[in-house]
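Researcher: Here's the sequence for the chain we discussed earlier.
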Amino acid sequence: MTRRCCQFLLALCIASSSAFADDHQHSLIVVRSAPVIQRLAVRVIHPTDVVVAASGDTLVADKVGKMVFRVDAVDETSILGKELDGLVRVADSRSFGVHALLRDDGKGQIVRLLETGFREDVCELSFEPAGLGVDAIGNIWTANPKTGDVILLDSTGTQQKAIRLQGIPTDIAVDGLGAVVLLRSGEIVSVSADGSWLRVGYVPAAASRLKLTPDHSVVALVTDGDGQSMLVRPTTNRESVDRFAMVTRGTSAFAFDRLGNLTLANPELPAITRVTSHFTVPCPHCGQQVPMLFSTHAPALKTPTRRSF
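Model: Thanks. This is the structure I predict for it:
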């Protein structure tokens, strides 16, 4: 974010907060505004996956370029891995780093991308895997679409468990308890390391990708019959659709940062786009970070009678 933008946000924060000046509460500040949309400078050919790492870096998997890019907080781009034939997914673990999922000709491979620019082969898979997730302690999750098995491996790539589901897995997201799995039918289930599973709900059967928000809510990417892309939440009824957000036509993957902002991958443009509506700004009195939301549904800002936080 530029210095001018930060100054603008701080001015809005000060102007919007007179209602709680007396007791100095740090409430969410909602500002009537469209989100800030920024196209990242990274040059991609066919982005197939995107992740916002715990560090704040954006990781981009380019299927045709066979590379994984990293875009840091100041939008500097570097290459984490290249010559990754069959690249389909990228995942990040705070302790174990960046992993990539490769698949080709009925088989798959998981590799770990090292800071030195080299890669470490974690494991070979005898099937074409669907989805990739790596948790904080290095457990790796993927799935076999042919058998319906959700596969749990340790950080060395040794298989620990296979949990069979009644459906065809298409994508996986990892949370603190295990994995959340999207089935081709649109059913979403939560799977634990002990082998138990629980139905989360349903999204349209056309759903292709799955992510978790910072508060661990489930969101899926769907493209309807007209080619329009949208993000949806699971519902208890197969016939219902709970729309989370509309996204650019052609979106292939998406990710959330720690505040809940979206990053979108689109091979049709081709582009990686950041959509920012959640901010934090420092309180001028105590320095604590105050949450701020840009929303087109917020009431218009009124001129404050006094300047105070």
